[in-house]
């Protein structure tokens, strides 16, 4: 069963929360982060993307950048922009997008659970990206940003959260992207104990929804610190890391689409002939065309939208990987027709999160940058859980969760 634990959060006073909260480190490049933090010395980007405090062009992996993150974290605390709570607590973090709100429990997850498979994953991680975040965790001595988890919904936990949010939120603001962010403190010791007990008795597994590299980095650093501590007891803070746990009945996944640079030497006529071997192809009546069900795709090429429907026998609905539309499109279109074998390394394909809309696909193709775009039906949360439960790994760039967690509302210290 899953183990979670309360912690003494390091977080901003109410008056600074909106200024400090930032988008995660991995959704912004250095220049975008520099622009977003301009004029705001309280932005957490000065800690999680500290290269913005140097001249453009600096290597974000330079040691001076990591050292600057430590310096800035200390400065934030010295200035009273971040203050540590006096006792361990849980928190509720809610996000509102398009009139819909989802409520997550902020708690420390167990390193041991990650290593033993109680915390399940569905994506592969890259060691270079792990090491970047491991350095950040090591040198700051903190999980500065949370990871995004889900778990099978439990009615009793839902009821506790529903009761908590009846009170006045500690933070309540709308970010520049229009998404609402709301935050409550759970400081009642009986409630804290009940939440811990419910996870330990009713939540068999938790799942990494978003933030696989941060999760791996946090767990690996925790394991390092354990090995380096001859007096290790298992109760130290480094045995736990920061996560926001959302019940599965509140989350949805949006589409994650593909664009390709060329037709692999084919003419458009021969490309469509190849497509028709495995797909029923029709010109779309509604444009831009959004897939209406599983195994239906949108294709945009030469200013025209098409509906593609995979033919019976080209997929396996009983295989948790084979049923995925990313698998069908990757194998039958990108690999077999366009010759794109490795989505992780190929420069001939790119990925566009559904939050950008289908208009972004048209833009990438109409500009001449890309030759075609594929719009995919979103993966379901149940498909993600089925794959994680089966021990399988999803193809690259399969899931897109929105809204992203804001970083900086609470930090977990490892000592």
What this model shows, in words?
The chain has 415 residues and is an alpha+beta fold. The chain has two domains: 4-251 and 402-413, no CATH class; 256-390, Conserved hypothetical protein from pyrococcus furiosus pfu- 392566-001, domain 2, CATH 3.30.1760. The chain has helices at 17-20, 30-36, 45-48, 63-78, 111-116, 127-140, 155-164, 189-202, 212-227, 268-275, 325-335, 358-366, 381-390; strands at 4-5, 10-11, 83-84, 90-97, 100-110, 119-120, 142-143, 147-151, 171-174, 180-186, 206-210, 240-247, 256-260, 279-283, 296-301, 304-310, 349-353, 372-375, 412-413. A hairpin with a 5-residue loop joins strand 9 (171-174) and strand 10 (180-186). Helix 4 (63-78) runs parallel beside helix 6 (127-140) and helix 6 packs across helix 9 (212-227). The longest helix is centred in the first third of the chain and has 16 residues, at 63-78. The chain is globular. The relative contact order is 0.17.
Total beta strands: 19
Mean pLDDT, to the nearest integer, reads: 95
| Gross morphology | globular
Compute the CA-based radius of gyration.
23 Å
* Count of discrete structural domains: 2
**Which secondary-structure class do the elements indicate?**
alpha+beta
Uncertain spans: none
- First-last Cα distance: 25 Å
């Amino acid at each position: 069963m899953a183990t979670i634990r309360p912690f003494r959060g390091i977080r901003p006073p109410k008056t600074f929360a909106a200024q400090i909260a930032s988008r995660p480190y991995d959704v912004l490049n250095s220049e975008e982060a520099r622009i977003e933090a301009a004029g705001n010395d309280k932005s957490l980007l000065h800690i999680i993307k500290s290269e913005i405090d140097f001249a453009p062009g600096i290597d974000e992996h330079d040691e001076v950048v990591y050292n600057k993150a430590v310096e800035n974290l200390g400065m934030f605390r010295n200035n009273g922009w971040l203050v540590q709570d006096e006792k361990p607590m849980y928190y509720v973090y809610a996000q509102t997008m398009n009139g819909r709100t989802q409520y997550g429990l902020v708690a420390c997850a167990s390193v041991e659970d990650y290593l033993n498979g109680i915390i399940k994953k569905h994506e592969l991680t890259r060691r270079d990206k792990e090491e970047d975040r491991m350095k950040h965790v090591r040198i700051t001595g903190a999980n500065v940003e949370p990871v995004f988890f889900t778990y099978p919904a439990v009615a009793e936990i839902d009821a506790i959260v529903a009761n908590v949010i009846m009170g006045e939120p500690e933070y309540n603001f709308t970010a520049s992207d229009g998404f609402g962010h709301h935050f409550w403190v759970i400081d009642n010791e009986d409630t804290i104990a009940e939440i811990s007990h419910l996870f330990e008795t009713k939540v068999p597994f938790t799942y990494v929804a978003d933030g696989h590299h941060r999760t791996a980095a946090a767990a690996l650093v925790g394991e390092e610190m354990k090995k380096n501590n001859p007096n290790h007891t298992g109760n130290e803070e480094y045995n736990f890391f920061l996560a926001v746990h959302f019940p599965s009945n509140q989350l949805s996944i949006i589409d994650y689409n593909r664009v390709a640079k060329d037709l692999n030497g084919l003419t458009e006529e021969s490309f469509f002939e190849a497509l028709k071997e495995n797909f029923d192809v029709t010109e779309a009546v509604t444009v831009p065309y959004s897939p209406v069900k599983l195994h239906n795709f949108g294709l945009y090429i030469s200013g025209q939208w098409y509906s593609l429907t995979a033919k019976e026998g080209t997929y396996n609905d009983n295989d948790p990987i084979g049923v995925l539309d990313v698998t069908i499109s990757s194998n039958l279109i990108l690999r077999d027709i366009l010759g794109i074998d490795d989505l992780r390394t190929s420069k001939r394909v790119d990925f566009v999160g559904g939050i950008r809309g289908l208009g972004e696909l048209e833009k990438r193709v109409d500009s001449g940058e890309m030759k075609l775009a594929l719009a995919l039906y979103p993966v379901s949360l149940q498909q993600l859980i089925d794959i994680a439960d089966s021990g399988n790994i999803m193809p690259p760039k399969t899931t897109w969760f929105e809204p992203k967690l804001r970083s900086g509302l609470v930090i977990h210290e490892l000592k």
